[in-house]
Amino acid sequence: MIPLTALLSRLRTRKFLFLILIFSTLSLFLYTSALGNLVSEWSLLDRLPGFSSGMPRLQSTCTPKEYSEGQWVWKPYYSRPGALSKSTGAAAATNWTEVKEVTAQMQKNEDILEFARFGGCASSREYWWHFAADRKEQWDRFPGAVEWEWVPGGRCAADEGLREWKVEEVVRDLVEGGGWLLIGDSVTENHFFSLSCLLYPHVLATPDYTKESSFDRAWPQHLYLNPSSPLLHHDSSTIRITKHQSGLNKNSPKKLHLPPGFDIANTPLVTFRRNDLLYSKEELESMHKELHPEFYVRPFNSSEKKQYGRSHPQPTSPTSSSPPTSHYRTLIASTAGHWTTNLFAGYGKNPAEEEENLEEKKEGDPVYGYDGLLTFFGEVMERWAGSVQAAFDEASKNLLSPSDGQKAAKQYKNVHYLPIDKPGRLRPDAHASGDCLHIMTGAGVLEGWSHYIWHYITREVPSSSS
User: Fold this and answer.
1) Nearest-CA neighbor of 331 among 258, 276, 407, 392?
2) CA-to-CA distance for 450 and 223, rounded, in angstroms?
3) Coil, strand, or helix at residue 270?
4) Helices 369-399 and 402-411 sit at what angle, rounded to 10 degrees?
């Protein structure tokens, strides 16, 4: 009798497995450096091995699971006050689900900003490509592709659930609480561009790609606080958010206080660094030989001389000669897009040959194809997360007394896995114009990442500083 796992593997096609792997990219790792009573719950669930669920959260209002148990609800673009809005599924469905009329036709590139409810974007990197608006023959996708709103499930839809996106409050958290450092591949760059639109016009982006005749994808990209933002009024080292803009009571204006050492011109609120696999080719090959010696009984070529992507790119732009003043609180890492049997060619055994040998497989034999690659991916991610946590534990000792430091090293668990990939998996229409891997800005998928991550690190992770 053929085992169930073997039967299921026969039903899998290369294309299906590739899509599963790619959409696992949309689940994000977070590493937050806020000290205090940090409680984590991060795991790769049943898909990848080795991650524990950790301790239950305190005062949780919208878990990643609840967020992902929602639905996409159609709302015409003109009915949405902004790129991100919060409404209940019942309210959205009552108003629009049965209508679905063609609301407009796209006549020029700039129309996508109106459809997506953006005033503009700070980043100039491949501007119209990020909106999937760079090919006129595909303009009939709009505005339909950006007329969907994700309504999360569970407690997230309640008033006290998912934190309502307000750009003023996001800017405040990035300035006073600390910025975001995004590490990952080109899908992470999609995320960075989307964030530059969500925070517009309150941020400026570098480099300015309109002034560069050539560029290196390894250049770091930054979002800085815009001194000309309509939110800001200067008062010495304090920036005031006006009563109207902050949505506060007329008698309770709030001030945005710049932390010590914060420099508007040199302290990024958000930074993106290109790092496709999180490790170098040499590091991955070393880990593979250690973890899977069964592959090396016979000669095993892990990559067939293919490039593994960027590991730790160094800035080469002349504009980055002066490194920015760091003020990051959260590291957001996303990967998997390059974890394919094309790049890791040693796993790409002929599917027909693999199927013939299903019943002959013995325990300890090499596992080829995406089943084997996903196992290795999970092992690498677990090791990466462990190294990040160890680095934080070591750093925390320097911030606490020796006795407290030993205790803190065991208690602080700062790596979190957010399985929020479901909204993206439900949106095959949200892809870029030239492929089905990259995700367009404005469709709500990338914007939802930013929304939930902001909620998570300011509401779901208790700390003395939030």
Assistant:
1) 392
2) 14
3) strand
4) 160
